[in-house]
Amino acid sequence: MAGEIEAKFWLERPSDDLLRTLNLDNIVTYDVGQIRAKARELSGIEPEVQDFLDHFYTKTDTSRGYSAEDLTSKVSLEGNALKYSDKSLKFAVEGGKDLNSEYQGFMRLLMAFFSGEDKSAGEDTPNKYAIRLREDRATNQTYLTLKCKHGKADEQSEEYEFVVESLATAVDFLETLGYEFRPEKTKIKKQERYSFERKGIEVHVEVNGIDQLGGVRFLEIEAVPKSLDKSPRIDFVYGIARRLGIRNPRLDSLNGGNREDRRYWQLQSQVPN
Fold first, then answer.
1. What is the pTM of this model?
2. pLDDT in tens, the chain (273 residues)
3. Are 58 and 68 contacting, i.e. CB atoms less than 8 angstroms apart?
4. Which of 105, 135, 169, 241 is the most buried (most CB within 10 A)?
5. Separation in Å, CA 151 to CA 4, 45, 265, 270
């Protein structure tokens, strides 16, 4: 689904080594129990609990695997299966999404990447079009996700996600496209997720612990419009953060606040060995 707006905030201080390495001396520690209580109050529900193992793949060599022309001639959606060459990957979508619309959005982003059409500045293109394979170890489901960030940091992104029947076939599909596994980006995320709707916006409030960062917990807030005319601005997310108890949500971790604009893999790359 397109047009997602999100932000994440440190809830706890990491180890002294990471505090110095990541320039986090000014962040404050929040009472995670109070954050949870306010999330329950806003959502009216108990959280979904997940245990994610995330693997990331990027395409750094454009001559490797499929070309833009191959995307058109060799990849198609037939029923609930993605066909590529003479192979098939069965997949589905969740949350009332339309499989065909999600597939079209996914292919549109791949085409922009493979053709060189996207010339946007900022993050290097391979990382912008990284694909995640996520194993939910609580439900034994596997997800394939392309999340392309268009705005500053985490503020605005497009995300297309599919439940895949076979992890091995999903890996084969990515390798056929020319994607390569990036082991240094692998992470384990322990998640508590509270979901609710406000003014036609689907809101997900998450308390997440990242094993590769010492289990330190973050607050992530994601706003997903249910229609194009309801697309939220980042202020909407900041408003939810304030209601949960985050002080000065506009301030990032380098300027006196707890908002973290760096991706998890960027933070992980700074973890001392």
1. 0.91
2. 446 899 999 999 999 989 999 999 999 999 999 999 999 999 999 999 999 999 999 999 989 999 999 999 999 999 999 999 899 999 999 988 899 999 999 999 999 999 999 877 655 789 999 999 999 998 999 999 999 987 555 556 789 999 999 999 999 999 999 999 999 999 999 999 999 998 889 999 999 999 999 999 999 999 988 765 567 889 999 999 999 999 999 999 989 999 999 999 999 998 877
3. no
4. 241
5. 10, 31, 18, 23
Residue written as token pair 């060459």: 85
User: Which of 97, 59, 271 shows the shortest CA–CA distance to 177?
Assistant: 59
Angstrom CA distances, 19 to 24, 182, 195, 238, stand at: 5, 25, 31, 24
